[in-house]
Amino acid sequence: MTDTPLHLLTATAALARLRAGTLTVEAYAQALLHRIAQRDDAVRAWAYLDPEYVLEQARALDGVPADKRGPLHGLPIGVKDVIYTKDMPTQHNSPIYKGSFPKVDSASIMILRHAGALIFGKTATTEFAATTVGPKTRNPHSATVDRTPGGSSSGSGAAVGDAQVPLALATQTGGSTIRPASFNGIYALKPTWGAVSREGQKVYSLLLDTLGWYAREVADLALLADVLGVRDDEPSPGPTFRGLSGARFALCQSPVWSQAGPGTRAALSRAAAILRAHGATIDELTLPPSFAAVPEWHRVLLHTDGRATFLPEHRVAKGDLHGSLAVYVDTPGFSRREQLAAQDGIAALRPKFDELAASYDAVLTPSVVDEAPEGLGWTGEAAFCSALHVPVVNIPGFQGENGMPIGVSLVAPRFHDRRLLKVAEAVGRVFEAEGGWTRRLL
């Protein structure tokens, strides 16, 4: 059997070799750098990458004694360029911060370095992870037509989707983690809000911002969940998952189902059919009428939180601030009364959704409107996203009318992240095998 090329190793497989001593960190890093050199003109996932520094770090990690190595020893991780790294610039895709070195690591990077991870480089993002105006990055699965990889975590999604790194950090305020995962045919975890520290990453909305991450299998998502301290109560809350046969899922189309395109409609239908074929029960979950206000309340929070967030850049460099962000300060669109109504309304619905979801192994719902649209100027519609603070896993395996990947989401009540990952691992195997889309790297 031909050995798997190093750049195609999952994080779990690579880590096993690194731990066993059959693969050096330097050799692994060189293989990934070679892949990037081959593909960078086509994908353009990186905002900052210094190959010599990558190899310098790799050699240093190879020199760490075996008994001093961390749980992620030598594992390369891409980092979205709104997350502070003391040895690399953090520029937020903004001329205001061009060449900026914060000289401090974010909380997540501190934890990952302590675990022995190789911080590989900074991945492209939309400006401040707050616009839908695309960066330079291209979807790696479209050979003939430029298509967006989604946003705002554009580079992280594309880099993992193109096997340039096995793992990458993302952030989400709207759909910024889940949408790129769907468009790039990869797995993503957006954990429960507040489960992982956001210290040291650019704020958009303190009420919504969440650190997430990408991988090419669920076991790899769990690696980072372990290190970043994502835990459920013990014993795990909710039903005990013993496999797809006998499992209970809720199918929730969400209040914005009318925006779903043919690819997403077909993917969700196919997903439900596959689960039923494997012995699972699927119940239709129609949310109470009170949930119909959530999309508008979410929009209110983005605008009103953005008003405070971007005031500093507006004051000191308005001419360099993207117009869609400057407008939050120039012409505030919502009153304080509307802001409070949105904050309190969504907060009241969170425990209600937890209660609805608690009797199921997971809730099945759309990840995106459809497959990645053409063009690089727009990262796609973020209609299907959550302001409910719940954990979400994107599962790949389906495709749209143009053969581009489409994922669907599994959702659980807040702080049921680990149980959700266990369910997602079983679901992912059958969706990838039977959903109709096969990862084909260019």
Automatic annotation (TrEMBL):
Keywords (A to Z) from UniProt: Transferase
UniProt domain Amidase: residue ranges: 30-421
GO molecular function: transferase activity
Chain spans, region Disordered: 133-158
One protein family per Pfam: Amidase
InterPro entries reported in the protein's UniProt record: Amidase_dom, AS_sf
PANTHER family, per database record: AMIDASE (PTHR42678), AMIDASE FAMILY PROTEIN (AFU_ORTHOLOGUE AFUA_6G14410) (PTHR42678:SF2)
Protein name: Glutamyl-tRNA(Gln) amidotransferase subunit A-like protein
